[in-house]
């Protein structure tokens, strides 16, 4: 059974990935992963690892991966915000219909501070957009 393996494998990290060259053709018939670079999706930087030699095609593939990963992260970030809105609505329902006075006492101050902070940021950003900044 033949398996088509990619030429590069990306081990995801917080700000990017460690990039490995996939070598399926070795003496032990095992797949070997040789780290060739680290990529940073925040600044688009590619750092070649040690004495690894990276081809132009590999560099192009890594830069393409960075662009793709940035798009995935942007989509996930927005999806997380939509989930947070849903969670806030569920929290309002819980507070109104299910929460005990003790439960409300345990969370009210922290929730109000978080909501106040969020409101300040959103109002400031909205004002900046309206003023063309």
Defining key terms:
single chain, 133 residues, alpha+beta, 2 domains, 4-stranded antiparallel β-sheet
Your description of this structure?
The protein is an alpha+beta fold. It has 2 domains: 8-98, no CATH class; 101-133. 54% of the residues lie in helices and 20% in strands. It has a 4-stranded antiparallel β-sheet, covered by helices on one side. The protein starts with 7 loop residues before the first strand and ends with a helix.
Strand order of the largest sheet: 1-2-3-4
Detail the poorly predicted runs: none
Q: What is the gyration radius calculated from CA atoms? A: 24 Å
Distance between the termini: 59 Å
Taken in chain order, the helices and strands follow as: EEEEHH
Brief digest:
The protein is an alpha+beta fold and 133 residues long. It is 54% helix and 20% strand. The protein has two domains: 8-98, no CATH class; 101-133.
Write the layout of secondary structure elements.
Elements: E1 8-13, E2 16-23, E3 32-40, E4 46-48, H1 56-97, H2 101-130
Antiparallel strand pairs: 1-2, 2-3, 3-4
